[in-house]
Specification:
There is one protein chain. This protein has 96 residues and is mainly α. It has a domain of 65 residues. The chain has 5 helices and 2 strands; from the N terminus they run ααββααα. A two-stranded antiparallel sheet has the order 1-2. Strand 1 and strand 2 form a beta hairpin. One of its GO terms (biological process) is tRNA transcription by RNA polymerase III. InterPro entries: RNA_pol_III_Rpc5 (IPR006886). This is DNA-directed RNA polymerase III subunit RPC5-like. It comes from Trifolium medium. Keywords: DNA-directed RNA polymerase, Transcription.
Length: 96
C-alpha cells in the first residue's frame, strides 16, 4: 500500500508489480535489452560501440568477465576503428 501523497512514479512502480512477467518483459523490451536477467537501455543507432559491448556481455554468460583488451579488439574488428579511451569509459560506466 502506498502512502497518501505518493508520487506518480511511486504509484506506477507499485502498479507494475501486478503485471504478468512476460507482459512486463515485453514492455521493457521496447526500450531495453536483457543481459542475463538485467535490463539495460538499448543503444541508439549512433552508439555502435555500446552494441559491441552489449553483444559481448550477452555472449559471456551470467558470470562472464570481459577484459578491456578483448572489448577493444572486438570493437576494432566490428567497427573498423579504434575506440578512444573516453568512449570506452563512458560505455563501461553506463553499463555497470
Amino acid at each position: 500500500m502506498l502512502p497518501k501523497g505518493g508520487s506518480k512514479i511511486d504509484v506506477d512502480a507499485a502498479n507494475s508489480l501486478d503485471v504478468p512477467q512476460d507482459e512486463l518483459k515485453a514492455v521493457l523490451g521496447e526500450v531495453a535489452c536483457d543481459i542475463h536477467g538485467c535490463f539495460v537501455l538499448k543503444s541508439s543507432k549512433d552508439d555502435l560501440f555500446r552494441d559491441v559491448v552489449i553483444d559481448m556481455l550477452r555472449g559471456s554468460g551470467p558470470n562472464g568477465k570481459l577484459r578491456k583488451a578483448e572489448i577493444l579488439e572486438a570493437a576494432r574488428r566490428k567497427l573498423g576503428r579504434d575506440v578512444p579511451n573516453n568512449e570506452y569509459i563512458k560505455v563501461s560506466f553506463l553499463l555497470v
